[in-house]
Design a protein that fits this description.
This protein is an all-alpha fold. It has two domains: 1-27; 31-96, no CATH class. The chain has helices spanning 2-16, 38-51, 59-65, 78-93. Helix 2 (38-51) runs antiparallel to helix 4 (78-93).
């Protein structure tokens, strides 16, 4: 019963926008990639690269994350590499 109430509350927050309730939205990195859409997987993966200064070469990447890049130029830490690998595996599984 308690779990149902939690899921109902989370659904309500998602429907009206978490920011309007003063609650931070659940970051994509905390989501289970098996439930993410191809679009969500792409954003989650590239958000990791973007925060590490990756230089995006595609029009889509530049449009979403900007053309500017900075050190460490997309070099990822151990956990970030693992997360990117996990996201890419799900992109392949889903035929993204």
């Amino acid at each position: 019963m308690r779990t149902q109430k939690i899921f109902k509350a989370l659904s309500l927050i998602g429907a009206i926008g978490a920011g309007s309730m003063g609650v931070a939205p659940i970051p994509a990195a905390a989501q289970d990639p098996s439930y993410m859409s191809c679009e969500e997987l792409w954003h989650a993966r590239n958000r990791i690269y973007a925060r590490n200064g990756h230089c995006f070469n595609t029009d889509r990447g530049r449009a979403v994350f900007g053309a500017g890049c900075f050190p460490p130029y997309g070099r990822l830490s151990g956990w970030e590499k693992s997360r990117v690998n996990q996201l890419q595996m799900w992109e392949r599984r889903k035929g993204c």
